[in-house]
Amino acid sequence: TIAGANLVSASVTVTNVSLAGTMAELVSVNSSEIVVRATAATAGRGDVTIYLDSGAVLSSYLAWRYLEPFVVTEVRPSSGQLGTYITISGSRLLSGGSAISLATVGDVNVLEVNSTANNKLVMRAGNSSFLGLVDVNFEMDTGALVSIPQSFEFVSPGVIDSATPSSGQLGTVVTLRGTSLLGHGSSVSTPAFSGTLANITSQNDTIVTAVIQEGPAQTGVVELLSDTGALIRFSPWTALETGVVESVFPTSGQDGTLVTIAGQRLLGGSAQLLSCTLASVPALFVSQNDTLVVVRASASFATVG
Q1: Omega within 30 of 0 (cis) for the link into 69
Q2: Distance (Å, rounded) from C-alpha 299 to C-alpha 305?
Q3: If you average pLDDT over residues 49-57, what whole number do you get?
Q4: Nearest 10 degrees: Cα torsion 109, 111, 115, 117
């Protein structure tokens, strides 16, 4: 941006602007401000020169310095999908700026820019329908443009084909099946089921098994977050309200005693209960439904639990 007074008038217009001897691209012109975009040039300092159609020339001595161009030493990883964190290493990456105003991987805006420094930039890939090598581009707050051609490859994203069961509550074991479930990484770091977190018990590229933690009852999306940042989504999945035991009668007994357990959602969203213990001793099921479970106590030493 070149600021001044009476730079142009109704009868005089700007034809060209040079920065340190190199012609710049005109962006906008008015009487008090001229905005240009610098083009490629050798590093060095020189005059800013404004050429008018009247033949007049306005100049500011040594007012512009071309910086050394940025250098990229590595883009890692070289491939990924939606959500993948891309780390760009090098020098002078900010190209004289202090922040990134726009970043794209291919023709898709990044989800976020996570770190900006002259020697390292971290950004998160957006969702691309194109598979293959693409450019990584970013524009600085100064307007400087940085392009790293053919530096990242969008590969086929991970896909969740099924979630079994399709609903559950605290403690439900859910099995996810699909392809590339690790998001082209080595592990899934955080799974969420309709906003409720889960603890992973086993995982590989085709099967992930997790135990649901406690969370709000709602229908939403299953989301796997890979250690690469890759996101894999599946819907719908329903988080159920946690079951509640309201009463146990009688509260004591011996081998053969029938015990009635009353409450709400006792089956926990499943078709049947697989086990029940009384003071840590397995009991035998007599009948069961969502509000009433009857079991027969087994033989045990006298104990409280």
Answers
A1: no
A2: 15
A3: 90
A4: 0
- CB 194, CB 221: distance < 8 Å: yes
pLDDT of 305 higher than 70: no
CB atoms within 10 A of CB 89: 16
Output phi, psi for 104, to 5 deg.
-135, 150
Residue 170: exposed, middle, or buried by beta-carbon count in 10 A (0-12, 13-18, 19+)? middle
In percent, the amount of the chain with pLDDT more than 70 equals 98
Residue identified by tokens 């509550």 is: 169
Residue 218 — pLDDT band, cuts 50, 70, 90?
Answer: very high
Query: Prior bond to 282 cis, omega within 30?
Result: no
Phi and psi at residue 288, in whole multiples of 5°?
A: -160, 140
Provide the β-strand partners of residue 223: 192, 233
> What is the rounded CA–CA span in Å between residue 181 and residue 303?
46
- The pLDDT assigned to 304 comes to 65
Q: Which residues contact 55 (CB under 8 A, 6 or more apart)?
A: none
- Nearest Cα neighbor of 80 from 123, 116, 28 is 123
